[in-house]
Amino acid sequence: MPTFLSRAMGMLKLADPPAWASPAIVALGLTAASLEALTLYLFIPLIQSLSAADNAGDQIGHLFNSLLEPVPPDRRVAILVAAVFAAVLLKNLVSYLNTFVTRFTGGYVAHQLRQKIFEQTISSCIDYRVHNKRTDIVNTLTTETWKVSNGLILVYRLIICTCSCAVFVVLLLLISVKLTAVAMLFLACSAAMVHVATRRADALGKDVVAENKRFGLRMWENINALQLIRSFAREDYELSRFKALSEMLHRRMLRMDMLWAVPAPLAEIFATALIGLLILAGGMIGTSFAVLAAFLAVLYRMQAPVREIMSSKVALASLSASVADVAEYLETTRKPYIKSGTKRIGSLEKEIVFCDVSFRYAPQEPLALSHVSFTIPKGATTAIVGRSGAGKSTLMRLLYRFEDPTSGEILADGTPLKQFDLRDWRQRLSLMSQDVRLFNETVEANIAYGDLDAPAEAIRKAATIAGADEFIRGLPQGYATELGDHGMRLSGGQRQRIALARTILKDPDILLLDEATNALDSESEQAIQQALDMYTRGRTVVVIAHRLTTVASADHVIVLDGGGVVECGAPATLLRSEGQFAKLHDLQFGKIAARG
User: Fold this and answer.
1) How far, in Å, CA of 520 to CA of 512, rounded?
2) Contacts of 386 (CB under 8 A, 6+ apart)
3) FRET partner for 82 with CA separation of 20 to 30 A, picked from 28, 125, 370, 427?
4) Which residues of 379-407 are buried (b: 16+ CB within 10 A; e: fewer)?
């Protein structure tokens, strides 16, 4: 019982329904149960009236005789029938209202949980490469939240059914204490047997959640790797893996469904046995036909809430893993991973300075950056170069405050970045990389993402500066053309130009270029570079590049190696120094000459 109560309380705490919902649902449920009990209770005098039985020694008969004494005998049956009908009508109206309030609350809770999970997902800045698989997040958002909602409804049903059973037990005691004692003892034994038969529900629920996550991951990876699968002719191999996981999930779900189905047939079997036992017991203790009929009618009607209590307990146990999954995710993302400051920032006046900055992604991992110090002056182009793994992209993450340094500080005009309002600081920056992210919306909507309030004229002007207006007008619906998933209807160069137009529309103070043209052909790269050169003139630009041809026009270059700064200076100066930059330059251009 403590385990069941803790599950129910945990469900209510996580779901956090409106304050009015729980009292209203319970009150309506109790009202419906009381009206149903009244209906069944009214059958006793009705049967006695129809049978014209002698009620002299019957306590219930005496009670109703006193209540119906003012009513003429020939009209009592009609009045009792009308009272039964009115009670049934009112009970069903209350039950229908209760169903509406319960379902409304369940849907509201699911909506609130989805919104909360999504809000915390996009604002917590957790490094999902370390903490979560993205498929797990999607599964939690789309599937487990509904299960929590269903679990809340189960808790309400359990409360209402328990209260209904209490009302019925009181009614049974009023009818016959002896028969009630026999029935309660039998029902207690039946509940113990059902509990033994369904004790694995909790473990099965955990297995289903884990299997569903594995299935979601396989489906997600296969959809995102369709071209790779086809290019290696691995359709049959992937189909067999998908089939195996789907079959395993099917088996787990079937076992859980069959476990859920156990209480209903057992309860019906036990009810039939109990009715037979009570008929025999009633005859032995001399119970009248009307009283015995009413007792059996109440007991039979009581089987529904008893059966629902048994089934709901099993279902609630199997949903405990889903509740734990949602609760754990909300707790993980509850506090912002990056804490925002409060200071507002205007335009960058002087420079950004990295002061002895070190960073590691996780405590057990080596330093990705070690004691890095350099300056990014306003209005200049700063290039960051180095081999793969040198720490270039990590610098970008720190500059954007996707992460904070493990030690050291980053200053903007002498103020630590941690003191600035996070969103206000990020509004001053814009990032372009080779991995262009476009939404499955129109061209206009993708460009307007840079400034949601921008008029159509500003969107087209930005596209023209980016060299995208001409090919956009050539699309089937022009700026209203839907781009499809990830903008795959466009070429790499076209996607980059739309991304550039989006950046231009945002009009950032600081532009970050992370290998923005690395994946393009020479012609597209040259066109994008020309557009960038025009746009970035006089702006603060930070360029990450493997290919040194893209940093030839930089004002100064920072060379990284092994997570540290090994050189810093103008490109021409670094070439003459014959250091790391010169070696990288000779290596790249030497390979080009060799290919020629």
Assistant:
1) 18
2) 392, 559, 560, 561, 580, 584
3) 28
4) ebbbbbbbeeebbbbbbbbbbbbebbbbe
| Helix residue ranges per DSSP H, 507-579 | 522-536, 571-577
H helix intervals, 403-542: 422-427, 443-448, 456-465, 469-473, 492-506, 522-536
Shortest CA distance to 130 belongs to which of 359, 364, 460, 340?
A: 364
- SS3 state at 11: helix
Cα torsion 46, 51, 54, 58: sign: negative
User: Alpha carbon of 57 to those of 54, 174, 263, 548, 569: distances in Å?
Assistant: 8, 15, 40, 107, 111
Helical axes 289-318 vs 235-261, angle rounded to 10° = 150
Token pair for 530: 């020309």
Cα dihedral 475, 476, 479, 485 sign? negative
Provide the 8-state DSSP code for 343.
B
| DSSP code for 539 | S
Per CATH, the homologous superfamily of domain 2-198+262-332 is: ABC transporter type 1, transmembrane domain (1.20.1560.10)
Name the residue with higher pLDDT: 67 or 591. Answer: 67
Question: What Rg, from alpha-carbon coordinates, does the chain have?
Answer: 36
Tokens 């110090």, residue? 373
Rounded Cα distance between 368 and 560, Å, is 11
Q: Are 510 and 540 contacting, i.e. CB atoms less than 8 angstroms apart?
A: yes
Q: Distances in Å between the alpha carbon of 446 and those of 325, 430, 492, 495, 499?
A: 34, 15, 15, 10, 8
pTM, to two decimals: 0.64
Residue 459 tokens read as 């969107």
The tens digit of pLDDT for each residue in 262-306 reads 666 776 677 777 777 777 777 677 666 767 777 777 777 777 787
Q: How would you classify the pairing of strands 381-386 and 556-561?
A: parallel
Residue 448 pLDDT more than 60? yes
Instruction: State the Cα–Cα distance between residues 232 and 54, nearest whole angstrom.
Output: 90
CA–CA gap between residue 471 and residue 493 (Å, rounded) = 11
Three-state secondary structure call for residue 429: strand
What's the distance, CA 99 to chain centroid? 26
Residue in 279, 404, 281 with CA at minimum distance from that of residue 339: 404
Give the pair of three-digit tokens for residue 43. 């059958």
Strand partners, 429: 510
Specify the pLDDT at position 516: 61
The pLDDT value given to residue 358: 92
- Percent of the chain topping pLDDT 70: 78
| Mean pLDDT across 478-489 | 79
Half-sphere exposure of 322 (CA within 13 A, CB side): 28
Q: What is the pLDDT of residues 563-579, one digit of tens each?
A: 888 888 888 888 888 78
